[in-house]
Every structure is written in C-alpha cells, then in structure tokens.
Specification:
Length: about 160
C-alpha cells in the first residue's frame, strides 16, 4: 500500500465513477459521470473518504457537509465523498438524505490504497484530504477508529489558509 501523501506533495490523480443530485433535491436528477481530480486544477477539493453509505457516522458526516455546502463553496472549494460502494448505492444514499455533493465509487479501493488509507475489514479509514488548486496536499486527517469526523468548520479554517 502506498504511503499517505504529505503536506505540500502532489496527491495521486484518479478518475472514479460517481454521481450528484442536481435540481430539486431528493427528487432531482442524479447525474452520473466520471470525476477526475486533475480536471479540477485551480479549485481546492476536499476529498472525504468514508467507509459506507447509510452507516451512522458516515450519514452524519455527509449530511453535515451537504447541509453546510456553502461553507465550502464560499471558500471556492468542492467536496467529493468517496467510498467503496457502487454508484447505485450512492444514488440511493444521496436521495435518502438529500446529499448535494458528488459521491464517488472506489469499488476496488485503488484510490484508497493510493492515498494510504485502505484498511482490512472496513475497506478504508475515514479520512479527509484538502487538495490545493495546484494538486498538492494542503491538509489531511486520517482517523484511527473512524467514530468521529472533521467538522465543516475545521475544514473551512484550513481552506481559508489557501487564499
């Protein structure tokens, strides 16, 4: 398994299938497409890796980020949720909770391995990576147990230092 990127180093590029709810909240369209990190150069991206759709802590985390999405967009950033579940599972999860950020499917955990957070049994460790617009790592948090998550306020403080 690769080591987790360090502050100031380039993060691994990747392309994953995913989707995002657009227009009309839970009843809106779920637009499916591939998401490529390098195509977002110039824009900070928060990569929120989470173990599973519909689990208690993951639901609380993603709902918090979604309901406070303006916290991120006000910083000029995007938030992508990444877990091992399928795009179909992500659509169901997004619709059930009105999640407004893209949810990406890392089904084979190749991206989790590239970021050094793959974990036996649970698939991946709960982790957040703040990627600067130039594609380098600005900040990260990798949880040991994953029972808690980084708040949108904490992430906004780190995003604010990019300006």
């Amino acid at each position: 398994m690769a080591a987790s990127p360090e502050h100031g180093s380039p993060v691994p590029d990747f392309t994953l299938p995913g989707g995002v709810l657009v227009g009309g909240g839970r009843d809106g369209a779920f637009e499916r497409r591939d998401f490529t990190l390098s195509e977002r150069r110039g824009v900070p991206v928060v990569l929120a890796f989470y173990p599973g759709d519909g689990t208690a802590v993951c639901t609380k985390q993603l709902c918090s980020y979604s309901s406070g999405l303006e916290t991120f967009t006000d910083c000029g950033a995007e938030v992508w949720g990444i877990s091992p579940q399928s795009v179909d599972s992500h659509e169901e999860f997004a619709r059930a909770h009105g999640l407004r950020m893209p949810l990406l499917a890392d089904a084979d955990r190749a991206v989790a391995r590239a970021f050094g957070i793959a974990a036996p049994g649970i698939g991946l460790r709960r982790a957040v990576f703040v990627v600067a617009g130039d594609g380098t790592l600005h900040w990260k948090h990798v949880a040991l147990l994953g029972a808690t998550f980084q708040s949108k306020e904490t992430l906004a403080r780190h995003l604010a230092t990019l300006v």
